[in-house]
Structure formats: structure tokens, C-alpha cells
Amino acid sequence: MLRCHCVAFDAIGGVPRKILYDRMTAVVTGEGRAEGIVYNRSLIDLARHFGFHPTACRPYRAKTKGKVDRPYLRALPMAPFCAVLRLARPISRESMVSVDGKASSVPDAIRRRVVKIHSLANEIQIFEGGHLIAVHPVLEGRSRRRIEACHRRHAEHARSRPTAPGTILLHSRGDKVAQRSLAFYDAVGRTLA
């Protein structure tokens, strides 16, 4: 969600003074009579950095949602937003960790079944017992998977297994490509032309 804000502000070329939110858990973490609405800490950090005021809609009031009013925007800050969202995630049987519906691999030798995730704007970092064990770029789209070949004990076996659609399998030494003569590519070019 934080990265989406940064991309949206970049796209519109500024920052609104106030942003109206639905009461999802990524925005509102609680509410009390004395303290009022308790906002997600990461959202507050983002709001301070960009200089906007987050406002949660009143519950069950459809008329307070969906307003767009952007005649005046504040300038974007000079420095990029670099906050870290800290999460704890379980490791699946396939040695994968899911963040925002996208799965990333961890080494097969990991002992703990729950790891710490630091989610930044452009990458996720995975920690076990305070040690960095994996770094993956943020994947675009839905239901994506990213597997580092070096995370698998049997890399050759992992290459021969069929992979699910949307999986990105990275090989540390590069993929093998059949060597062909230039005459072959010349013939292909003539056929396609």
C-alpha cells in the first residue's frame, strides 16, 4: 500500500493535503472513545514524509467515501520515502514466503518456520534470527512467484520440475542456450521477412 501511494503521488505530480480512507486494517488499527481513531504506524510515517493528513471514513456511511477534490497539490518532497514495514510470515512447505499475495523463496536449509520480513518500497528483505537470508525485488501483478535457484538444495531437480504460471525462476549461472551457426539465424530471418 505504501508503494502505491508513492507511485500515485509521482503520477499526479504532487500530494493532496488530505486523503480519505476506508476503514481497512492497513489504515485503521483500532478505535477508542478516549483516543479516537488509531492509524497504522506505517501510514502515519508516510503521511509525515509527504505532508498529507489521513482521514478515515465514518463506519457504514457510504456518502462519505469516494470524493475526489485535487485542485491544489503540495510539492513532492526532495528525498524518497524509505520506511520499512516489518512483518512476520510463515514459511510454506515449498520454502516460500508470501507478502501481499506474492511468493518469494527462502533457502531450503531455514530452520525456523516463521521469519521476519522488512518490506521496503523497492524490495523485501527476509531475516531469520536477525540474519539476512534473502532479498527479492517487489513483484508487480497478482499471484506472482520468484524463486532463487541458489535457495534450492537440488537446483538441477528444481529446473526440471514444471513451474506454475507467473513463476520467475532465476539461475545463478544463467540459462543454457543452444549454439547455432549464423546461417541458421539468417534462414529464420528470411522466413519471417
Topology:
Blueprint: H1 2-12, E1 18-21, E2 28-32, E3 36-39, H2 41-50, E4 53-56, E5 85-90, E6 96-99, E7 102-105, E8 114-119, E9 123-128, E10 131-137, E11 145-148, H3 155-160, E12 167-170, H4 182-192
Parallel strand pairs: 1-4, 7-11, 11-12
Antiparallel strand pairs: 2-3, 5-8, 6-7, 8-9, 9-10
Q: What does it look like?
A:
- The protein has 193 residues and is of the alpha/beta class.
- It has two domains: 2-64, no CATH class; 85-170, no CATH class.
- 20% of the residues lie in helices and 30% in strands.
- The protein is built from four helices and twelve strands.
- Strands 5-8-9-10 form a four-stranded antiparallel β-sheet, with no helix packed on it.
- A hairpin with a 2-residue loop joins strand 9 and strand 10 (131-137).
- It is extended, with a radius of gyration of 23 Å.
- The N and C termini lie far apart (46 Å).
Number of E strands: 12
Order of helices and strands: HEEEHEEEEEEEEHEH
Using only C-alpha atoms, the radius of gyration works out to 23 Å
How far apart lie the N and C ends? 46 Å
Give the overall shape, derived from the CA principal axes: extended
Beta-strand share of residues: 25-35%
Which bin fits the share of residues in helices? 10-25%
Number of helices: 4
Q: How do the strands of the widest beta sheet line up side by side?
A: 5-8-9-10
- Which regions are unreliable across 5 or more consecutive residues at pLDDT < 50? none
Observed structural traits:
single chain, four-stranded mixed sheet, 12 strands, alpha/beta, 193 residues, 2 domains, 30% strand, four-stranded antiparallel sheet
